[in-house]
Amino acid sequence: MLSMFWVAVFRRLAEAAVVCFGVSFLTFALTFLMPADPVAAIAGIKVSPETRRQIRQDLGLDRPVWVQYGLYLKRLLRGDLGRSFVTQQQVSEAISERLAPTVLLALTAWCIALVLGVCFSCLGAMRRSWQPLLFASSSLWLAIPPFWLGLLLLYAFAFYWPLFPLGGYSALGVVLPACALAAGMAAAYYRILEANLREVLAQPFIQAAHAKGLPPSRVVLLHALRNAILPVVTLLALDLAGLLGGVTLTETVFHWPGLGRLAVEAVFNQDLPMLMGVVLVTTVILVALNAIADLLHAWIDPRVRQAEGEG
Amino acid sequence: MRSRLFLLCTLLVLACRQQSPGPASDSDHVLRLADQDEIPTLDPARGYDTASWQFEDLIFETLLDYDDKGDLVGEAAESWSASADFREFRFMLRPSRFSHGRSVRPGDFAYAVRRVLLPSTQSPGRDFYLGLLGARECDSTACDVPGIEAREPDLLIFRLETPDLLFLHKVALPFAAALPEEIVRERGATFSRNPTGSGPYRLREWRAGQYLWLEPNPYYEGAQPPSLAGILRQTGVGEELAWMQFLSGQLDVTGIPTADFLHVRGDPRWRERIHTITTLRTQYVGLNCSVPPFHDRRVRQALNYATDKEKLVRLLNGRAVAAVGVVPPNLPSYPERAPVYPYDPHRAEQLLRAAGYAAGFETTLWLRNDPTAMRIAQSLQQDWLRVGIHVKLRPLAWGVFLEAIREPGRVPMFLLGWEADFPDASNFLDVLFHSRQVGANNHTEYRNPAVDALLEAAARELSASARIQFLYRAEQAIIEDAPWIFLFHPSTFVLVQSRVAGFRLHPWRPPRVGRVRIEITNGHPPEPHSARPRNASGR
Amino acid sequence: MRRSAPNRTLATGIAMLVLMLAVATIAPVWLNRDPLLPVTDAIGEPLAPQRTFPCGTDELGRDVCARILVAGQVSLAIAISATAICLGVGVGVGLLAGYFGGWVDTLFMRFTEVLLAVPMLLLAITLAALFEPSPYLLLAVIGAVGWTPVARAVRAEVRSLRAREFVVAARAIGATNRRILGKHILPNLRASILGLAAVTASHSLLIDAGLSFIGLGVPPPVPSWGRMLSESQTYYRAAPWLMLFPGAALSFAVLAFQLIASGLGRPFAERQ
Question: Which of A 35-54 lie inside 8 A of B, CB atoms?
Fold first, then answer.
């Protein structure tokens, strides 16, 4: 049994390695397909063609793509992510500086969204009369772009009533950007969870629970919710992975030093080492969370576990 | 369930505790700035953008510098002289020290220029100093430039291959700032993030994506002693956030958001604290002279007549001056010019008819994907539609856009700007319109032998006034040929708090924030909310 | 009584959608105002809503009302076709991966991981540089981004469904895979799929905004709701109407999509 488990773990790790490789290859290829000159980002537009050629040669950008990719992988295996073309900073250092703020913002936003989504969907499922209101307001939140909500929140709660700091990285400062991000996500969770909840509530085992005389709140919370969350678990994991990969616009609005801004700057500057580094980190996070979601899925739903065992 | 909740809380707490302490302002005499863009580098050999130059100017010293009027003055040089043929330049240094205590020697300037010339430095400023004797022979193995002579203790001589009237301006560029060789070698690639110079300020802390913090250089002996206890520059602060921070007294200097501009300008409370200057920049639409229908001069002229420049200025809330030619209006000692192309759709239609495009035509305008550029482009699109020219917009990322316009014959028309490095018309005309610059900066593929001859005559001319006449005549010929639609010269508007005194904008350099003073009136907080520096990261 | 409720939801949603489509088609003709050219001299200074311009004008002097109506055609077309693409691909892949499991599942899921991790901004910039912008390219990009979450959600649900009694029973009596998928599993997915559809539709309305700045969206000056929203963010305090009206239109559309989704999703749940 134990060996089975380890086999599964190793298989998953091997698959993760393949995914990372695929992502890094695609990213590298896309950067080279893009008809743009990374030297322009380093040297500016006024520089003469000779100097530009010289810089390109020094960075090794004049070599064939596959040679460059091979060299990159070779350095990567030694644990060297390289230096940014533009700022000359160590890529690993730049990323690790941004990691803590990114995790803080992502986890806070995700938790808020999840709690709100669950609460409102239960409310909607139990109190039919509230449903139209919840429904309409969820559409509103889905349609509001997070950056706009962010600006409004900043204006109201940091400027007009200075309850929170005006942007910047701090424990208190995480509240507003997290709320701005969570609003739309919570509305989406509400939509999906509520649909599932209502379906589950119509099923025989719930009616049996009602028949046993359990209070409705207990039925919803204990029996129905678990079954309703089930299809959403992977979605939740993906959303968290998305947040951990950085949320550029919100980070920009709130002056939050997250990975999103780093990634976008790297894309626009064609800062190849920086871009590859950020993408690698994001991929690892995504793959890990996906694996966790699969495990969790099996844990919540015994049938899946069973099916896995059979298959 | 409870244990999982606990785990989550622990994670959150851990994430919170990881955060940076942030700079606590030592005193009220810290100037607080904010900007959207990160500072790419503080290595003078590599920085070639406004943000890098603004802080390199504080940390490093160049031989010469500009005063507020734009005239050259000595910074590290006490006196200087140029030979009559403008091929030899001598600089006498005044005593000065790096921020680690060592005194500055002429060899530190020589080292800096040699380093810029060294190809492996990847310096974008290399081209400026290739005129030095033997500079072109400088390669990766040896860079012994005979044109640079450092005579201890205080004499520095530059010798050029050909006369160059502009060499003094090139010496004033941050590329030629004094560097301590021993520290540059020791720090290697990290020097750009941890610089040491002989300027009035030195680096205290730099957190990428968050802030840059400068403090006074204790060894500074120069003419502009630091007037502030520190300079704190937040990075990644958008226009909107900066504005709110400024209004609540957390910032000392800010730009004015587009949407608030008119009401701020009309508000008597702010009027005296607005600083403005027209930059040495020209925004234009390049018309590719090798792509039909723009190979026909009449079509290019028609487009100039069909463009409502005053409307663009209104669209920008008056933050620009309509262009009459290539060279900005505030260039020192350059003649005034009368507008050649007023807004005249009728004239445009006549010219189009004469060129055989009575029914108009379709083409594509390429531009950078930036909100302001998109607004300008849409306004142009409206104007040209009135004379029957249908223009599609092709917004692209900056790098892609640059690569596209460099490719000969690909892009029919593009929206771009040019900013001069020093106040001289040749920095526009020679660089952008000489036929030898096709493939480099002459993206419109404009070729006119008469213009080339005038520009070359100007480059050889040693008399300043005759030189300007050559350049002026070249510009007139270019305006007549209209390879550009000359749009406008943007103006910068900046608002400062009343506690900041002595703030000045510069037309072609970033503002010299190191020279301002902070005046705090005791008892009364001078700002509407509070002038006390709440700390930058809001701890 | 309980049966009529969901149909009313559905009817309301459809009515809203039809109303929007009708307004978006007919009103521009009736309003007869060019959404692309200035209607006033107030350039750089948006005019507040007033009698002649019920939704105000923007900084280029264009009538916001006319723009919202034209944008409606564009946005609704994008939303509907993009959602169809995302659902088509996502449900197909999710069904196959979830039902067959094994290497099919592994392959599909790892592929979606790769797609999710490659930076979309990079892809968008590269595509915008390589191809002339067109609505098809835009749909392809939104489709490429949008199908993966659908596929993952569907796969997760199928994985739990295939172990349920009725599927096991169907398999025991020798039903073909196609029959099991079509008759037993797919109908059970309806609620989730329609919920996902509503979310996907609203997302694709917003994605268009971001892409048009990179050069991939509907080419400017043609408006779309998403782009109107993001273009007007500079003016969110000085001219809130620039954001309010497209935002309201967008919310209305999202609500309509969700009502339809919810109305379609319910009857089945009750039939069970």
Answer: 35-38, 40-51, 54
